[in-house]
Design a protein that fits this description.
Length: 203
């Protein structure tokens, strides 16, 4: 009996819609307009993100913000600005020495450890131990082609020497300021980065 009533109801609705076919056209037109509006908004947002990324700049005062996550977010955004579309912030508990991961337009995998110093140059220096942690996980655990430590503070001379010995890269406060306030990609500011993994329009 319930099935019969349902079938009868369907027949009534169909007949009513056939008699008022213009309602179907109106619903279809509204759906097309709504879908077009969403698509337009998505395209506009993508264009704005592209423009924003191309002109992205940070001052050191912004990078000295009280919480370390601000520096990690900024490094991720700067890598995206430089063309690393997959740049992701992964820092947090158990990050195993990686705060930001990215693949550059040349196919090279970047693993970046951020060391935020609330007091900038007056804060504690990044030392050899910090570089040893990065060296122990960047390539073996995260598959890095380029392993980098970034700080808004200073780096000890032994740490810099260790980094050179182990083919690690150090971005100290000075290099960070140049990178964040300009438009040159990080790989143009570092020495002896590996060659491209794949040919691209930029290679």
């Amino acid at each position: 009996m319930a099935a019969g009533l349902a079938a009868a109801l369907v027949v009534v609705v169909v007949n009513w819609l056939l008699a008022h076919w213009w309602i179907l056209i109106l619903i279809g037109a509204l759906a097309v307009l709504a879908g077009g509006g969403r698509l337009y908004q998505k395209q506009q947002k993508a264009r704005w993100e592209t423009v924003r990324a191309q002109g992205l700049r940070y001052g050191l005062s912004q990078l000295d913000a009280p919480h370390h996550s601000r520096l990690e977010d900024a490094v991720r955004d700067l890598m995206r600005r430089d063309g690393c579309q997959d740049a992701t912030r992964v820092g947090g508990g158990g990050d195993l020495g990686a705060d930001v991961k990215a693949t550059d337009p040349y196919g090279r995998r970047w693993v970046i450890q951020c060391k935020h110093r609330r007091n900038g140059l007056a804060g504690s220096a990044v030392g050899t131990l910090d570089l040893q942690v990065l060296n122990g996980t960047a390539r073996q655990v995260h598959g890095a082609d380029i392993a980098v430590i970034v700080t808004n503070g200073r780096v000890t001379a032994p740490a810099v020497a260790f980094a050179r010995q182990q083919r690690l890269h150090v971005v100290d406060r000075h290099t960070l300021a140049v990178w964040a306030s300009g438009s040159r990609p990080l790989w143009e500011l570092l020495r002896a980065v590996p060659p491209p993994r794949k040919p691209t329009a930029l290679s």
